[in-house]
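Today's session is about reading a structure prediction critically. Students often jump straight to the picture, but the first step is always the sequence itself: look for stretches that repeat, for charged clusters, for runs of hydrophobic residues. Only then move on to the predicted structure, which in these notes is written as discrete structure tokens rather than atom positions. Here is the chain we will use throughout the hour.
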Amino acid sequence: MPAASWPRRRPRSSLPRSVRACAPSVSTARAIGAASSPRGQPDLVSLRRLCVLDGWPPDGPLVLRGDEAHRVASVWRLRAGATLHVFDGAGSERRASIEQITRAEVTLRLHEAVEALAECRVPVTLACAFPRGQRGDWVVEKATELGAAQIVPLEAERAVLAPGDGRLERWRRIAVEAAEQCGRATLPVLGGALPEDACGFVADPAAALPLGEAAADAHDSPAAVLYVGPEGGWSDQERARFRADGARFVSLGLRTLRVETAAVAGLARLIEALEGGSPAS
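Below is the predicted structure for this chain, in token form.
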């Protein structure tokens, strides 16, 4: 007697039933996306943005070679006539269209300037005792997306990572890709001296003052610095230096956070507070 076989069923979604009931179909999602883009405006979700760090000529076409041409021709697979945006990492952005394209060289015609997304009113520096490996890469990516003006690897007594030139170059590439994705036309500065006359906020699990409340009176400051890490905690000497510099120890909540979580959560909260969000958040 042949073995019985169960009737074949359609694979079940891993989403909860309430979520599946509210999830739009593909056609509905496309309709929503089309309706959300103003008439005559490009779809910013699908529009490609390319960072050209060398800038572009004031007159004439922009010719891409090397990695930039490879991305446009072979990775993005764009064709002649396609539209994209180019930005220089310093705040300038323009619309461009492809005139000629090969695997080795792409010629762009530059059109009108595009109004870039506004940067944070108060420039914020993230000074972080970076964790190892991909966790540190993730901090750079998310800090760029959130709007950090500067990202400084912090040398701390209990830090586990002192990034070399190779790591910094990798972080620069990550910052470029994050800026292309999130819509920023300005890249964060990686490394360098901390800004003078900045309001300092030190993330500390033992602090009682919420970060949002501490930042409420810093809206007119020339700059702000958020200190995060290291995994082993701040030493007594480091705490004394922070106090001598006038920095404020702040809380990011009741839970103990990893360095990368504290960096991203703290940066988001600080920027929101400085931009006019709820000071008590």
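Discussion point for the tutorial: Residues 1-45 have pLDDT under 50 and may be disordered.
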